Amino acid sequence: MKDVLDELAAARRTMGSATLPAGDAYTIELRRHYDAPVDDVWNAITDPERLGRWLKPVTGDLRLGGSFELDGGEHGEILACDPPQRLRVSWLFGPEADEWPGTSEVEVRLSRGQSGGTEFELVHAAAVGEPMFPTYGPGAGGVGWDLHLLTLAGFLADGETLDHNEFRALPEGREFARRSAAAWGEAHLAGGGDPNHVAAAVAATTAFYAPGGNE
């Protein structure tokens, strides 16, 4: 349990703002350190075989200007690729999302840490007014990214992978999800969120990712 929660605490979470082709957007931002070198982390986020082991299986034309699709239905286009520092993609979910292009993007930035390893930054921008935010707040995407970055940590360290559905069914998985939802609530408050909305969003996110309470 301690190692899992240590990984959760290793990330810094903030909310911000951005402008997308579709208009004003909010951002959820994750920053953390990995002990692996930059080239290894870059390979893990761009090589299809390795990406599929910590994120989801991916298919498509994986080059600048090409498109991709993940096994879970997330899909988009590769908008920027500057090895090994920056990758930016559009990020849509479900066939209906194609009717509203330019509403969601994910950017990953890598840099060498002062004492080695890699400083990892992920920014997910979503258009203001997207339907999940009123109910779940930043936890709508934030808890999922926390789970993926937990998996990436294990994969970079020793090739270990994690089944998210199995993990979330375990007591430590539910605790991870609860604490992640609470951490995104704190980031939401710090970003100027209404306290009542934040509390309701944290409760909804917790119920989604960690159903069953402490059972």
Radius of gyration: 17 Å
CATH homologous superfamily caption: START domain
Hey, roughly how much beta strand do the residues contain? 25-35%
CATH level 1 class label = Alpha Beta
**How many strands in all?**
9
Number of domains: 1
Shape: globular
Number of helices: 8
First CA to last CA: what distance? 16 Å
Order of helices and strands: HEEHHEEEEEEEHHHHH
CATH fold label: Alpha-D-Glucose-1,6-Bisphosphate, Chain A, domain 4
**Helix content estimate:** 40-55%
Low-confidence stretches: none
Which features would summarize this protein structure in a list?
215 residues, Alpha-D-Glucose-1,6-Bisphosphate, Chain A, domain 4, nine-stranded antiparallel β-sheet
Describe this entry's structure for a reader.
With 215 residues, the chain is of the alpha+beta class. The protein has one domain (2-209): START domain (Alpha-D-Glucose-1,6-Bisphosphate, Chain A, domain 4). It is built from 8 helices and 9 strands. Strands 1, 2, 3, 4, 5, 6, 7, 8 and 9 form a 9-stranded antiparallel beta sheet that branches. Helix 2 packs across helix 3. It is globular and about 40 Å long. The mean pLDDT is 93.
Write the layout of secondary structure elements.
Elements: H1 2-9, E1 12-20, E2 23-34, H2 38-46, H3 48-54, E3 58-60, E4 67-70, E5 74-82, E6 86-90, E7 92-93, E8 104-112, E9 118-127, H4 133-136, H5 139-158, H6 164-169, H7 171-190, H8 195-209
Antiparallel strand pairs: 1-2, 2-9, 3-4, 4-5, 5-6, 5-7, 6-8, 8-9
Helix pairs in contact: 2-3, 5-7, 7-8
Domain Activator of Hsp90 ATPase homologue 1/2-like C-terminal: 35-149
InterPro entries: ASHA1/2-like_C (IPR013538), START-like_dom_sf (IPR023393)
Family: Belongs to the AHA1 family.
